[in-house]
Structure formats: C-alpha cells, structure tokens
Amino acid sequence: MGERSIIFPAQEYRNRVARLQAGMAAQGLGALLLTTPADIFYLTGFLTRFWESPARPWFAIVPLMDDPVAVIPAIGAELMGRTWLHDIRTWDAPNPHDDGISLLAGALAEQVPSQGQIGLPMGLETHLRMPLADYERLHALLAPRQLVDATACIHRVREVKSQAEIAKIRESCAIAGRAFDRVPEFVAEGRPLSGIFRDFQIALLTEGADWVSYVAGGAGPDGYGDVISPAGPQPLRRGDVLMLDTGAVKDGYFCDFDRNFSIGAASDISRRAHAVLWRATEDTLATLRPGLRASDVHAFLCDSLQRRGSTPSGGRLGHGLGITLTEWPSFTPMDDTVLREGMVLTLEPGCFTGDGRIMVHEENIVLNADGAELLSPRAPSELPEITA
Amino acid sequence: MGERSIIFPAQEYRNRVARLQAGMAAQGLGALLLTTPADIFYLTGFLTRFWESPARPWFAIVPLMDDPVAVIPAIGAELMGRTWLHDIRTWDAPNPHDDGISLLAGALAEQVPSQGQIGLPMGLETHLRMPLADYERLHALLAPRQLVDATACIHRVREVKSQAEIAKIRESCAIAGRAFDRVPEFVAEGRPLSGIFRDFQIALLTEGADWVSYVAGGAGPDGYGDVISPAGPQPLRRGDVLMLDTGAVKDGYFCDFDRNFSIGAASDISRRAHAVLWRATEDTLATLRPGLRASDVHAFLCDSLQRRGSTPSGGRLGHGLGITLTEWPSFTPMDDTVLREGMVLTLEPGCFTGDGRIMVHEENIVLNADGAELLSPRAPSELPEITA
Question: Which of A113, A151, A326, B254 pairs as cysteine with A123 (C-beta 3.0–4.6 A)?
Fold first, then answer.
C-alpha cells in the first residue's frame, strides 16, 4: 500500500471511490459534492469531533475520473493531510465575505464541463451542511452546470459495507455488549436515571468506546412512554422496566442497540412483552435474505408480534447502521429499498404494553448471502431482573 | 408560571420568542422556520441526543404574533409535549413520499399571507437541516410567499444570554474545571493519548456532565501540530506539552476551554509560550467592553502576543459559546460583529512554538456592562508540570 491513510488502508477508500464513480458514470454526473461528516469520513477517513462546531463548512469533491479533492478550512489541513487524499485546498474560515465558495466553485469547474452535472445528496435522510445562501451563490458561479440529486448514487454504495467496516461495527457492538453486562453493577431501585445514564456512559468508555454519541432510555411500570429522552432525576422504582439504548463509537463506527431490565421481579406484562419481542426478532433473524424489501421486514415483524397477541408500536422497526447512528433503509410500510448482501441493519420491534407505554428490543446484524448474522451479542430470551 | 416546560420556566422561552418577534417585525417577516437542534432547543427546551440520527427532519415555526408551532416526527411527540409548546403537529417519519413537507407548508401558510415573507437562517455559520429537494418542494408549495435570510434576526437574539443561560454555562465550566483538576490522576509519561482522552471523558461525566460532546487535544515537544484530532495510540513522552480541550454539556449548555500540561519539567519554550498566552488573555480580560467589534479583539490578542515576541497562530482566536460548542462571532480580522452585554465568549489565543507546532490557551467569559467576567476557573499562570 504505502499511502498514508486513517482508520483503513488507502485501498479501502479507493474501492469506495471506484464504486461511487461507477454510479456517477451511470447517472451522467461529472462530480459529486459532499458536505456532511459521514460522507466526508466515508470518502477520506477524516475523523474528528470538531464537526460539533457549526462554524465552518467542509467540502469534498469526487471527480468522475480522478481522486477526491478536499476543500476545507485551514484548521483541518494537518488532519486531512494524514488521510490518503493528496489534493487538499484550504481557506481561512470562517470568512464572512467568501467562506470557501469561490475556492469550491473553482475546484468543481476544473472537473466538470460547463454543460455537465454535479450531484449532491438532496433526498430522504440527507441535508446540505453549508449555508443556504452560499449554496445559491455556488449554483450561480457554476452555471450553466446543473446541480442534481445524487442520493441514490451515494446510498447504494454506502449501504453495502466492506468486511473491514463490518469488523468495526462488530467491535462497537462488543464494547456495548460488555457495558450492558455491567448494568447490574450500577442499577438499583432508588437510583436516579441521570446517575444511571452517567454510569452507563462511563462503562461504555471503560470497555473501549472512543466516545459515546448516543445514550437514551426510559423507565416505568411495564414499559416507558418514550425512547429518545435524556435522563431526569426520577429514581428507579421496584416494578419498573428500565431500557438503555446506545450508539457508542469506535474508529467512527456505531453500534445501536438497547437492552431491557426489570427492577425487582418482572411483572407478567413486561415478561411476556419481552418474550414476544425476543421471539419476533428470532423469527426475523431466520427469515432475512437479500432481495427482500425494507417494507417486507416491517410487515414480517408486525405479523410476528400480532400472531403472539401484541400490538406493534408505530414508527420504524429497524434501520441501517454504520457511520451514523441510523442510516437508511427504514423498516416501515413505505420503504421499498431492496435489502442487499453486506447491509448492516438493526431489528427494533416495539410493542404497546398498555397506558401509552411501550417496550422496544433491538439487535444489530449484517446481511450475508445466506441470511442474517448477529453483530450484537444476542439479548437473553427472558427479561433480566435486577434484584439488589 | 404553571406552564409545563423543560430546563427553564416557560417565561424564559416566552422572553426569547418576544425578542425574536420584535426582530421579525422590524424585518417584515411573517414567520421564522427553524430546523437545527440548537435553534429548536433555544425556542422550546426540547433536548435529546436523538439528533444524532439524521433520518428525520424536525421543524419549528415562530409566527409573528403567536406562540411557536412544532411540526415534528411522531417519535418526538411525547418529549415535545413536555415543553411549553401547545401546538405540536406530527407525522410518521421517515416518509419517502412526503416527509412532513405538506404538513409544514400548511402550518406556515396559516401564519403568513400569500404576499408575506418567511425567514430562515441562510448565512454564515448556519445550515438547513432538511433535504434540499424538500426545501425546494416547500418553496413551491408556499409560493408566492418568499423565503428569505433571517440569520441576523436569530443571531442578534441568541447571542445575548439571559442570566439563566449564563448560570448553566458557568455550571458546565465548573464541571470541566473539576475534571481538569483531576488530570494528574490519569496522565503520566508512557500512557497513550487514547487512554487519556477516555479517562478525561470519564472524569467529566463523574464531575457532573450529562454528556461529553467534544474532546480534542494534542501532545508533542514544545507544542502540538493540530487541535482537532481524535487521540491516537502514541504514548506521552517526557518533554511533551499535552493539551486537552473539551465541550462538556450540562442541561444542553456547553463549556469550551482547554488546559496545557508539561510532561515532566517544562522546556523554556513551552513555559514561555504558556506565560505569554496567559498574559495576552489577562490583558484582553481587562480590556473587553461592549461596543468593541470581534475584529478588535482579534487585533488586541495579536498585538499582545507580538509585543511579547510571540507569533500568533492563524484562524480565529475565540468565538461565541452557548448551546453549541462554538457560536458566532469569531475573533478574526474579518468579523465586524459588535460585542454586546450578555454575550458569552471564548478567548483562545494561540502562538507558534516552532517547527509547525503551536500552543493554544482558552478561557470562557461573559461580557458584562463593565467588562469581562470569567466563567471558566482561570488557568494557572505557569504551565503545570506533571511529574509522576
């Protein structure tokens, strides 16, 4: 290899670019313009928590025939210089008069003839991480070149993970699995959720997470009302079901799965809901194959829950996973994305347990040619009870 | 009060909306449309780490004369229902056919007459967190209403913090201060940076952070080449200067400051650089007043460094701070933003220490009528030495 790179050997990134370029050629695109942390990390290996600062836009260009070009704030030059990219152009950002736009327009104009098309992600589950006024200025500078939607071009490549990527996600899952194993060390009746969320993050870091981008959860008798809230000061009570969900990060790759625990002896309702959710997951694990559609998986999970007398909760019942906490496709009735070998997915069936409460169960898998392979350590079939 | 709300009493949010509406009236806007985590948190108190999932757009509308309207995915209904908002409209997202756009267009059309204007942030340090194709569809649905830039309207309000906000940032700063005090417990010659970053995050959580959105740093002889990198496996060596920088979060409010440490006895170069950076900060703390411009602060910091024989590092030498890791204004030569009472700011002078290396020093302050007040516990004037 010999080329400098971050996270993976340069060949991994070259393979990605080759796949993107094949899609670009098929769509008639002269270049792709990428602006988000995930898309730029995917292309380059450029990994930093500095994205947390919204001050500066960052740009990467994929030419149809050549290696990518980074057009970035000078503060990132040294880190981008450690990736496999060799064409890195910088400006001193933030610049209120021209925040990289003339530099970017120039770089794009080199790659794309005036009658050509430049693709950007514009569709579902995307956004443009740059000021809207600057996008309009860029559009004018590049005219008569067209800026067109390239969501499918990017998604069809990113959604199929390499073996190297799958290994990273498996590692994140293993870290979270070890942290979940330690939950009984810090969960007890009377402890506030805020302290439990804190200790869970500490356990994730201790077990090897680089950082913890996501922790959510809930607790209540027989279930919880909500799965996205931060922790409050309320103490756990005997009879509560506690759910903890995490997206821990290792080398830029996420896991995303949850676990449920009964505080004290489990009620019949919560024990039964857990068993049904576990069983619906088991059924689906045995059935998943490339060629199914995302909507088929939703139907399958719902059928499996309903056959056992449970009412599925609304929303999506799983999704893609990788370099963001959630990726497409979504297991909803409306998503017709075809499942392909190499996709990493979550199975996330939820069911109502009464009085506006739900329970949700989640595992992470990779889809192989012959079916699903678990990446998360499988949850126990019976709801664990924490009896201190 | 009596109204339900999160983080702050409802009156805090009502005051914010009144200030936004005054700016909207002055600009002739019929409504504001907000899409980012920070803008929506500012308006409502809606706080969740679920923004980590890019799957779904979220919208909040500020009408000219009425309370805000939330147009959000159903998964957020329960949490948004705990805020002070009473008009919450939901759809089942992600929906590939209509991901909330007709619902959003309808809500905006109720508020804004067909000849009216809807303001969005489009300028420096902003982006639109929704698919670009959906923005264009929204634009068409709302025509002939105009979508115009409202960056200044929002920034002039958000940049002046209330006493309640300042108290939150002070608390985040105190948490980080206590974690920095514990650095000698886990930093030693021979330890890898990756372990130190992990232990620093654990210390921040232990000292009370809800979560740690940002940790960066560097280490090297007499300084570091880069301030935004994640940690690698390289071990600390005697003579290194270690810098740790953090944005820890408490109740949605950030701190953002760093500290430097010498591993073993400090070299003359690093000791002197630290003293000069500390002194330049001290000079600036004594000089800051409302009415200065951001560019004046940059010039002042540079002058102070140069008078003492140091070469300022490039980029901005400080910035706003609050509900994101960095906010406008930027202490650069090009930012003419006028400093106002109630702004929370970072002072972040950096200087070259030779061979492409720099050292950076950072404090957080609030600007009062009579000058700067520290929010971060002041760094020691002499570079601390860690001699295990």
Answer: A151
Tens-digit pLDDT profile for residues A23-56: 999 999 999 999 999 999 999 999 999 999 999 9
B128 touches chain A (CB under 8 A): yes
What is the residue extent of each domain of chain B?
Answer: 10-158, 163-386
Listed by number, the residues of chain A in 249-288 with a beta carbon closer than 8 Å to a beta carbon of chain B are none
What's the gap in Å between the CA of B99 and the closest CA on chain A? 8
Same fold flag, A10-158 and A163-386:
no
Residue B30: both structure tokens together:
């019929």
For residue B17, give both structure tokens: 């909306």
* A14: enclosing H helix or E strand: helix A10-27
pLDDT in tens, B54-108: 999 999 999 999 999 999 999 999 999 999 999 999 999 999 999 999 999 999 9
Q: Considering only CB atoms, which chain B residues are within 8 Å of A249?
A: none
Which site among A53, A155, A172, A331 would you substitute to test the B interface, given the most B Cβ atoms closer than 10 Å to its Cβ? A53
Query: Closest partner residue to B52 among A56, A247, A314, by Cβ?
Result: A247
pLDDT digits (tens, 9 = 90+) for B131-148: 999 999 999 999 999 999
Q: Does A8 touch chain B (CB under 8 A)?
A: no
Burial class of residue A379 in the structure, from the number of CB atoms within 10 Å of its CB (0-12 exposed, 13-18 middle, 19+ buried):
buried
With contacts defined as CB-CB under 8 Å, which chain B residues touch A227? 75
Q: What's the pLDDT tens digit per position in A84-106?
A: 999 999 999 999 999 999 999 99
Hey, are the CB atoms on B230 and A210 less than 8 Å from each other?
yes
The β-bridge partners of A243 are A218, A260
Structure tokens belonging to residue B112: 């804004």
Q: Could you read off the pLDDT of A152-185 as tens digits, one per residue?
A: 999 999 999 999 999 999 999 999 999 999 999 9
Buried b (16+ CB within 10 A) or exposed e, A262-290: bbeebbebbbbbbebbbbbbebbbeebee
- pLDDT for position B1: 37
Residues of B with Cβ-Cβ distance to A127 under 8 angstroms = 54, 57, 127-132
Q: Note which residues in 136-155 of chain A have CB less than 8 A from chain B.
A: 149
**What CATH number should be reported for the domain whose range is B163-386?**
3.90.230.10
Supply the pLDDT for residue A356. 87
- ipTM of this complex prediction, to 2 decimal places: 0.97
Contact B124 A131 (CB under 8 A): yes
pLDDT tens-digit map of B323-345: 999 999 999 999 999 999 999 99
For position A2, what pLDDT does the model report? Answer: 47
A-proximal residues of B, 204-233, CB under 8 Å: 205-206, 210-216, 225-231
Q: Is B54 on the interface with A (CB under 8 A)?
A: yes
Tell me how crowded residue A26 is: count the other CB atoms within 10 A of its CB. 10
Nearest by CB: A211 against B92, B127, B201: B201
How far are the Cα atoms of B52, B182, B220, B264, B276 from residue B241, in angstroms, in the given order? 33, 17, 6, 9, 15
Among B94, B149, B330, whose Cβ lies nearest the Cβ of A124? Answer: B94
CATH code: domain A10-158 is 3.40.350.10
One-character DSSP codes across B239-293? TEEEEEEEEEEETTEE--EEEEEEESSPPHHHHHHHHHHHHHHHHHHHH--TT-B
Rounded Cα gap, residues A129 and B268, in angstroms: 43
List all residues of chain A from 319 to 348 with a beta carbon under 8 Å from chain B.
Answer: 319, 324-328, 330, 332, 334-336
Residue B3 has pLDDT above 80, yes or no: no
SS3 state at B300: helix
- Output the 3-class SS for B5-73: CCCCCHHHHHHHHHHHHHHHHHHCCCEEEECCHHHHHHHHCCCCHHHHCCCCCCEEEEECCCCCEEEEE
**What are the beta bridge partners of residue A240?**
A221
